[in-house]
């Protein structure tokens, strides 16, 4: 059995959710997926070996980092082996046979409905109706015989459930995108590494509560001319004035300068964890 | 007419929403508020002078920074004049007369329902029902005569609409809290400033795309022994490899060292905006 055929991916949401699209970007359309209701369950499935990988959103261009998933990654000690970004584009989807003139009600998750306000202003005879999931609203539409209903969900949701896209990209903000991590239990065996390739390495660390502690930590990278693509502080609840820092540095853990920077950082931090090195999938 | 009597606050959501609780923390329970459906409308109301202040969430301990509201603040050039943090605690609320044994359906915003999964696991005979708003579901409950329904919302929502709290703090994660900014159109006339008081100053800046640019920017603070309580990078969509940085520094813009640090920072950045100096309300 080849390795590819046993790959399976846990994600949160229904098939057709944006996490599902991210999983297909990593592994292609034939990937075997296992949907879960909650992020917690996604991580537990990977921990239990029910799946080989998990795909989770880690930050959104409008709504920031999803700290909950950083927490789960740290708690389980999983490794990031891939990264991709999905544009959050919403489609107006109906059962084949329903025309735009028939529609009165539009089902979707309230967050998605909220991201299509311009559309509802333009067509005030359409009533938004809250549903538990975007892709789930397409699934429901195909099962029910509502003559007056549409759903708002992804292109993948339309494809999976056989829905028809009546209007494309009806979201208000075209700058809405979500970054996803591909996770495994253990770091992969080193693949052929070319330092010319574009890699990122994600770290989490905490500094002692001392003036300039973060500045010194940043020096580990700056002194080695290593670029950062992300830095974010997060208060540690139980310890006022102490912070976790999420940092993404350009380079692979196999790069000598990245390795040295991380060793150096270890001297200056009270906690340090390498979450993984990966090549972004575009 | 005293100044206090003309203060009015725009916020997003229904009365009883967490933003409403934040407004009351700033101004007391008698504050005149004006609710809006969308953040965009909240900012427009302040711009148009319909209200004197706006209160908006800016980051959540589990879900990160609300970039959308940073964007609105920058776009309108509003000033931050206050900050407070509200713990997101969910209450099970019914009409007086309904007992826990009567309940079969529980209405709330899906995000709130999702944050009470443990509760629904414990009482599997209760069905969560999505509604457009947390506080709105209490309002609806009081108007309808459902004998079998409850809502999940804040303590303030129960109080405002005359609901009864049957179970307190049913949220899964007690570490869920949201930080709010109080905004005005112009910086207030300098109030009596004691450098011994605890102040924060919030900045947004962009650095040129050069190695070590952020490190140099951080030096402006570290060299003056100024502590940061937040640093966060945000990619600038139109400019690959360039970033906005959100920084909160401990100190008031009237502190000499803070002023000097900001002048220094201006030499090193391609964009710099002081969003405001404020004393956090606890």
In short:
2 copies of one chain form a homodimer. Chain A has 282 residues and is of the alpha/beta class.
Write down the Rg of chain A.
Answer: 21 Å
- CATH fold category name of the largest domain in chain A: D-Maltodextrin-Binding Protein, domain 2
CATH top level of the largest domain in chain A is Alpha Beta
Helix percent band of chain A = 25-40%
Largest interface: A-B, 37 and 37 residues
Q: How much beta of chain A, percentage-wise?
A: 25-35%
CATH H-level homologous superfamily name of the largest domain in chain A: Periplasmic binding protein-like II
Q: What's the number of helices of chain A?
A: 10
Count of domains of chain A: 3
Report the oligomer: homodimer
Distance from N terminus to C terminus of chain A (CA atoms, Å) equals 28 Å
At CATH's second level, what is the architecture of the largest domain in chain A?
3-Layer(aba) Sandwich
Q: What's the rounded overall pLDDT mean of chain A?
A: 90
**Shape assignment of chain A:** elongated
Structural class of chain A: alpha/beta
Q: Would you report the number of β strands of chain A?
A: 16
Which regions of chain A contain 5 or more consecutive residues with pLDDT less than 50?
1-5
């Amino acid at each position: 059995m080849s390795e590819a055929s046993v790959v399976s991916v846990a994600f949160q949401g229904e098939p057709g959710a944006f996490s599902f699209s991210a999983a297909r970007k990593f592994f292609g359309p034939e990937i075997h997926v296992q949907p879960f209701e909650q992020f917690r369950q996604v991580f537990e499935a990977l921990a239990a070996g029910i799946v080989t990988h998990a795909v989770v959103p880690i930050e959104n261009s409008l709504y920031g980092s999803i700290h909950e998933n950083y927490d789960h990654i740290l708690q389980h000690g999983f490794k990031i082996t891939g990264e991709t970004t999905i544009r959050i584009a919403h489609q107006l989807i109906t059962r084949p046979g329903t025309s735009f003139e028939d529609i009165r009600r539009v089902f979707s998750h309230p967050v998605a409905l909220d991201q299509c306000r311009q559309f509802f202003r333009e067509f005030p005879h359409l009533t938004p109706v809250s549903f538990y999931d975007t892709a789930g609203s397409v699934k429901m539409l195909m099962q029910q015989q509502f003559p007056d209903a549409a759903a708002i969900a992804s292109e993948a949701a339309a494809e999976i459930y056989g829905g028809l896209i009546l209007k494309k990209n009806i979201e208000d903000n075209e700058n809405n995108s979500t970054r996803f991590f591909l996770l495994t239990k253990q770091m992969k065996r080193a693949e052929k590494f070319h330092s010319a390739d574009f890699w990122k390495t994600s770290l989490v660390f905490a500094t002692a509560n001392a003036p300039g502690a973060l500045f010194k930590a940043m020096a580990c990278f700056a002194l080695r001319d290593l670029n950062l693509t992300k830095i974010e502080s997060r208060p540690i609840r139980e310890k006022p004035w102490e912070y976790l820092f999420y940092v993404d540095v350009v380079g692979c853990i196999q790069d000598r300068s990245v390795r040295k920077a991380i060793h150096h950082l270890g001297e200056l931090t009270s906690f340090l964890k390498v979450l993984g090195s990966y090549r972004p999938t575009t």
